[in-house]
Amino acid sequence: MSEPFVFGVPLIARGVAADWALVDRLLGLTLRSVLAQADGDFRLVLAAHDRPGAWDAVADDPRFELVLADWTPEPPNAPNDDGGRKKWLVKERVRAIGGGLLMFLDADDWVPRDLVAKARAVVTPAHVGGVVRDGVALDWRSGRVARFPLPGPFAGPFHSLCGSSTVARVVPGGADELGRDPHLTLGSHHQWPERAAELGVALAAIDVTGLYMIGTGQNHSEHQSPVADWRRGITDAVRSEGVPLDAAMAAQFGQDLEALPDRSPLRSP
């Protein structure tokens, strides 16, 4: 029997979102991307204060679960406390089903169609998790895409910049803290390979092309991060050096370029 694979998505609260309609629209594309997985044996847990309209498309699908947050929402801050608490809710649900492979996504992310299949193929019980090291950055506003290493301000690998690049093996109930909470032990996504090496544990390389979405205005790191100015420089570099997203690449992430929302610059260069 396959180990459960769970996507976990923390969603900003409607009451503190700058543009809830855009949040909802972007989440709809994230859900469409997940639905396009070649291996359909997955779950998705959305941790949110509100039920977004995009959820209607998956509400009757038993693979998708909405977990409502019960604290008073606060505006985004530098530590991203709200997102962290919602990730904890997701992790609790994974523990409740007996553990499995967990990948956190931002609510504007797209994932490659072969992600679940390839992660299952390489992340075994001998691994603490896996890392996606290669990928592209897509600027929502301009519809331009650039492959890592990015031109100019960032010459590192995909996982060093994109938080949606790690898959953790969550093993509840054991004495091993690393299994109970891999994210706590391994730290931030950019630290995983080095921390795993320090601890002498195995970390798999997941051979897919990831996608880092920028320029939506909804990604926490674009505005609230201590390095927000530097990240905006990365956005400028993608806009100036990238190439237009084409239908073939959009399809790799479960998207139909012509079916993207009319107001999105991605729909037409």
Output the keywords.
269 residues, alpha/beta, Spore Coat Polysaccharide Biosynthesis Protein SpsA, Chain A, seven-stranded mixed sheet, four-stranded mixed sheet, 11 strands, 20% strand, globular
How many structural domains does the protein architecture include?
1
Structural class: alpha/beta
Number of strands: 11
CATH architecture annotation: Alpha-Beta Complex
Count of helix runs:
10
**The CATH topology is what?**
Spore Coat Polysaccharide Biosynthesis Protein SpsA, Chain A
Which band does the percent of strand residues land in?
A: 15-25%
CATH class: Alpha Beta
Major β-sheet strand ordering: 3-2-1-4-8-5-9
| Helix content percent band | 25-40%
